[in-house]
Amino acid sequence: MNNLTPKTTKVDAPAQIIARLSALQLFSMERQEDFDALRSAHLAELSPRTAYESTLAEDLVRYQWELARMRRFRDGVLLESYKEMAFNVLERGDPRINTHAFKLSDEKFDLVSDLVGHDVREREVAETLFHEKTGWRPEDLLARAFAKSSMVKTCEERIADLERRRRWLREDYARLKASTSHAEVADAEVVEAHDDD
Amino acid sequence: MTTERQATANSRNALKSTGPKTEEGKTVSAQNATSHGLAKPLDWNDVMSYHRLLLAEAGLREDASLEDPLPAATLALAQAEAGLARARDAEEAFLKDLAEGKDLAPYLRRASEIVKEISRSVVGASPELSETLLASRRLPGHEVRHIVREHWTAPHRHLQKLVKYRRAAEVSRRKALGAWTCLREESSERSQIQP
Fold first, then answer.
1. Is residue A29 part of a domain?
2. Does residue A8 form part of some domain?
3. What is the pLDDT of residues A143-169, one digit of tens each?
4. What is the H or E stretch that residue A97 is in?
5. How far is A79 from chain B (nearest CA, A)?
6. 3-state DSSP assignment of residue B35
7. Which of A143, A163, A150, A144 is nearest to A71 (CA)?
């Protein structure tokens, strides 16, 4: 028997599914408003039209957040490694020779702290001073830290993996949207034919 | 094809597999089911929530026969979605615990402190937290590396396991979604062609 009811019904997703998907567990150092802003921007771009599209769109938002989180973590690990090398250069003149940071003078300790500080001006001054004192360019040291840290590599691998999976989901989402449009067109034609009868 | 002789030998050998023998092995094995719970059967309520949503999406009735391909694919997709949601929640809860240091074994708590210190220093939080981080830098380098190695490796391994489950669940969802989409399109086309 020919089914003349529309195939795509616009229903609200069961509340628990959407609530579960959109309630990402944020770390205490992450801000809910940052997540909400990212979520709104992505949902606006993805513009899901059906309940199931909404669940996949929420999934994509989570990927974006996880990617941003992992990038922040990688940057933190990289800075730690960079700092360790800066200590080594200041004390031993070689980034590869580990030093006991507690032996550093307060002046050297503060210099390294400024090198990774959040104040751009202080950082620039510290970088110039570091270069003058040691002959090492901070950017070379940072590149070396990037190449040497196994934790940074782990983070990079995880970022690449997340990015790949996010891309697959994006493809699936595009396919689902195309399929929904296809079903809507078919439904419209069936309903039209039925009306003509 | 397995011969009768081979089958008998397999059964006989299987009887010899009596699980871990050492106390250490038994302790590890005892935790298999409780470490993440992702190998347990799915919560049927979760599956049904997704199932209802997908049935509506495909324009199917709740009593649609599972012998038809589209309702069967709908149920398979609902199961894949519920499995993925569970794997994702487990990974997320573990990461959250790691970052917050809640209810963790001692080795995880120390790891969480390190992760927290590093993460907070990145986000640029309060000066006293940066002080903690700087203080940790005053430890001898080899000691810091030892702490990180010892206390990062174990949770990292556990996280890898959770990621593996989640990735497998994503692959299942991808396959189920592909099949469901095709069947839904075919079903629409059929309803167009039929007079």
1. yes
2. no
3. 888 888 877 888 888 899 999 999 999
4. none
5. 8
6. coil
7. A163
